[in-house]
C-alpha cells in the first residue's frame, strides 16, 4: 500500500512539473481561465503567459532621465543623440562634452547651456546641427525629434519633440517621461518658437523616439503639476540641495565670501546647470 501511495505521488509530481521545463522570466506572470465550465476535463483550463513591466519603465522609454539638478538640456540632448543619432552616451558624458567644446566661461557665468554649446558638441561628434526659429507647422514638417524649450508650471525647461498626431503634441520630458500636450497648449508654452535639430543620414537614424501605442495617452496640466508636487513636497530643501550638489559638476574657485573662514582661498564649488531664455 505504501509503495502504491508513494508511486502515485511521484507520478503526480513529475507530471505536474514536466509541463514547465523553462525557467520563468522575472517579468512573467501566468493566469488561468475556464474554457468551458460544463466540461470537467484536463483541457478545461486555459493558461497564458503575460509579460509585465513597471509603469515607470514605459513612462521613460527611450528617454535619458535627468540625473542632475536642472540639467534638462544635457538630458534632452543625450536623449536625441542616443535615440535618434545612435550614440551610446550618458548624461555625464554629454555634459563634459558641452563644457569642453562649448563656451566654458559663459556656461559658468550664466549657469546654463546654450544651443550654440549643443551645436559645437554635436559638430565635434561629426554631425551637422543648428538652432532655428519657425512656426508650429515647420516643427511638424521636420518629421524628426527636435529639442524645444518650453515655459511650463513656472519653470523653463528643455524637452524633446517626438511627434504630432490628432491635435496632440507628444514629447519626451527628461523629468516627467513620455507626455503629451494639446496642440494649442503646446503653442502657448513653446519658448520663442525655437527648435534644435541634428542632421542624421537616413540609413543611420534610430527609432527609439518613434511614437508608440503606449504614448497615446492624454496628460493634462493638473496631472503634470500634481506629479511635480508629489516629487518635491516630501523632500526637505536642504536634503534636495545636498543631492543636487552631489550630482553637479565640481570646479575650483577662490572663495569670495568675506564672512567665510576660507575667504581668499581655493575651494570646491558645485556648478548646477539651468536653462535660461537669455
Automatic annotation (TrEMBL):
For this entry, list what GO says about its biological process: proteolysis
MF term (GO), any: peptidase activity
Q: Which domain of life is it from?
A: Bacteria
Gene3D superfamilies to which the protein is assigned, alphabetical: Cysteine proteinases
Query: PROSITE patterns of this UniProt entry?
Result: PEPTIDASE_C39 (PS50990)
Q: Which residues form a coiled coil?
A: none
> Sorted alphabetically, which Pfam families does this protein's record hold?
Peptidase_C39 (PF03412)
Q: What's an example GO cellular component term for this entry? A: membrane
Residue stretches making up the Peptidase C39 domain: 66-197
Q: Per the UniProt record, which residue ranges are transmembrane?
A: none
CDD domains listed in its UniProt record:
Peptidase_C39G (cd02423)
> This protein is called what?
Peptidase C39 domain-containing protein
**Organism, scientific name:** Acinetobacter gerneri DSM 14967 = CIP 107464 = MTCC 9824
Amino acid at each position: 500500500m505504501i509503495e502504491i501511495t508513494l508511486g502515485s505521488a511521484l507520478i503526480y509530481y513529475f507530471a505536474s512539473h514536466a509541463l514547465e521545463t523553462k525557467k520563468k522570466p522575472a517579468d512573467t506572470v501566468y493566469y488561468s481561465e475556464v474554457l468551458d465550465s460544463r466540461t470537467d476535463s484536463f483541457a478545461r483550463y486555459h493558461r497564458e503567459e503575460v509579460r509585465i513591466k513597471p509603469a515607470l519603465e514605459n513612462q521613460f522609454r527611450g528617454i535619458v532621465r535627468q540625473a542632475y539638478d536642472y540639467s534638462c538640456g544635457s538630458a534632452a540632448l543625450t536623449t536625441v543623440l542616443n535615440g535618434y543619432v545612435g550614440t551610446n552616451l550618458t548624461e555625464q558624458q554629454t555634459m563634459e562634452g558641452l563644457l569642453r567644446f562649448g563656451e566654458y566661461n559663459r556656461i559658468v557665468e550664466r549657469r546654463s547651456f546654450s544651443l550654440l554649446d549643443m551645436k559645437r558638441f554635436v559638430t565635434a561628434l561629426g554631425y551637422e546641427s543648428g538652432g532655428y526659429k519657425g512656426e508650429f507647422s515647420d516643427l511638424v514638417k521636420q518629421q524628426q525629434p527636435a529639442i524645444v524649450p518650453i515655459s511650463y508650471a513656472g519653470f523653463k525647461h528643455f524637452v524633446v519633440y517626438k511627434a504630432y498626431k490628432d491635435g496632440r503634441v507628444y514629447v519626451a520630458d527628461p523629468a516627467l517621461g513620455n507626455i503629451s500636450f494639446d496642440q494649442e497648449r503646446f503653442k502657448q508654452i513653446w519658448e520663442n518658437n525655437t527648435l534644435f535639430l541634428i542632421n542624421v543620414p537616413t540609413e543611420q537614424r534610430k527609432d527609439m523616439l518613434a511614437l508608440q501605442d503606449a504614448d497615446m495617452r492624454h496628460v493634462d496640466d493638473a496631472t503634470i503639476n500634481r506629479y511635480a508636487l508629489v516629487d518635491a513636497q516630501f523632500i526637505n530643501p536642504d536634503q534636495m540641495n545636498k543631492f543636487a550638489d552631489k550630482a553637479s559638476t565640481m570646479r575650483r574657485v577662490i572663495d569670495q565670501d568675506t564672512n567665510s573662514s576660507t575667504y581668499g582661498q581655493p575651494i570646491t564649488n558645485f556648478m548646477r546647470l539651468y536653462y535660461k531664455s537669455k
